[in-house]
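S2.1 Query sequence (SLC13 family permease)
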Amino acid sequence: MLDNVVASSATPLQMWVVLALVAGSLVLYGWERISLEMTSMAIIAVLLLFFNIFPLNNSDGDNLLGPDTIMSGFANPALLTVLALLVVGQALVLTGGVSYIAGLITEHGGKNASLAIFVGLFVVMLLSAFLNNTPVVVIFIPIIQALAERIQRSPSSLMIPLSFVAILGGMTTLIGSSTNLLVSSSLIELGMDPLEFFEFTVVGGVLALTGFVYVLLVAPRLLPALASMRSRLTQPDGSGKQFIAQITVGPASKMIGTKPVAGFFKNLPNVTIQMIVRREHADLPPFDEHMEIQPGDVLVVAATRKALTEALQKDPGLIHAEAAAVHDGSDNSENKSTQLLAEVMLPPGSRLIGFNLEQIGFRYQYKCLVLGIQRRSRMIRTQMTEIRLEAGDVLLVQGRSEDVEALRTIRDVVLLEWSTRALPRPFHARRAAFIFLGVIGLAATGVVPIMVSSFIGAGLMIGSGALNMRQASRAIDRKIVLLVAAALALGNALQLTGGASYVADVLLTALHGAPAPVILSVFFLMVACFTNVLSNNACAVLFTPIGIGMAQQLDVPPHIFAIAVVMAANCSFASPVGYQTNLLVMGPGHYRFVDFLKSGTPLILLLWVAFSLFAPWYYGLSF
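Output structure tokens follow.
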């Protein structure tokens, strides 16, 4: 092995410094008193400085751990692929392209939240057995987010389970993960038969189902306490503030012809209609069951910002007349810029106090449309345009990004910075979905590598107008960039200095004379621990020859230890850098390093116990 050749030229000082850095990085990432970005930068800086002073030279005198090697993580194909896929996924979210899929899952799950979650996660696990895990998770991140919102559950409780079930599904077939293929390739290089397609499906299936039960029942109970508060702080739209809004039913609205059921309209879930104005007549609830919505009806409703936005997205014809051009894309000047939704408050000295929206001419004066008015502890039953504004009123406004930003300079209103959100662009949903499916199809069929298809997809999303450059840049999380770069630098140093081989040799020496099932169990746990520090692919290449050597010493079939490498190397649950899908869900779930550690460590131990009990029995290993 190359690692053994390199290790012979490494000094004990170099190896022990790297091992100390690995241990120290795990402590700092879990402690979180220092930001993850600063810890990652510090690790890279220490490695650069140390191996500049104490170079690891090969026979030609070249420093194997010079700046090019240590900094290579920033150009790692896996990292660049993840970033490109984040951009593609962000475009799909901004265009609202996943609403229909989420609706199908929730319709089949009904009001039963557990059933809806089960269906979504189980489908991910099945798909991951035959498709690349990364695109599967990319597809389902926005779907699971939308599902969580529909059942009023924090997305933070479902993002890590989503990644975990994808990894579990990848354990069951030869093409479920690149790790599995690498182990099979290593067997061929060692002069042995490769793994068959379904050779480890039984063992992998037992582990996958065991882990799925944990992910479904236990992991979500751990995660809300860890991440839901951070999710609420960064996504304040989930508040229960009720806005008074006025909606004019357009001629293309799906509401036309609908009748109330028990006084409510099923087309407007989570929206309370307080008054229907038709010509000069106003109807108040409870509404007569024979009443039908007609074009031109003015609906005065009370709804949260989220419910109001969802209602307008599902039914573009159900919209304030002045905003129609903005939503259907007919006004090209409006669509050259991103549409934002924001909240502004009227301060005590505002000149708008005492006037209604028609008298102010808000739309024409500030180039922003008022969608709703929120007034504390007051239930208003009048048309929104007739409400005289008071100090403390909060207006829900929509406008181009530059117009919303300009509200900062207006002394009559105070822009609530945290409330600014980009509006979905439904008129781009079809093209975004087409690009997205093309990216996944090309990668899944192997026509082009996932890195190539993801970069093409990201470029097409920006070029087609599904999202702009600012939105694309916001989709890239700097934590992920620095974390991956630091982890890859440590992994290279650990292998090239012989640190990984040293730890493996120490454990094997300590287990000398133990029965085969015990050695197999400890070997599994050792690989599972390393796969959360090194990459899973590195573990496959590093530990397959070691496992084969152990099997030959114990006189047991080598494929048993090779399958142990497959299962253990896929146990990348306790670290966000363990697997690409963990990185993908880190941003949407608002997770920290310790969240993976606390939710993933019990799963690793559970799978270790399951493998240690089932595999020896299944393969007939005796004590």
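Residues 593-619 form the longest helix (27 residues). The first strand starts at residue 243 and ends at 248.
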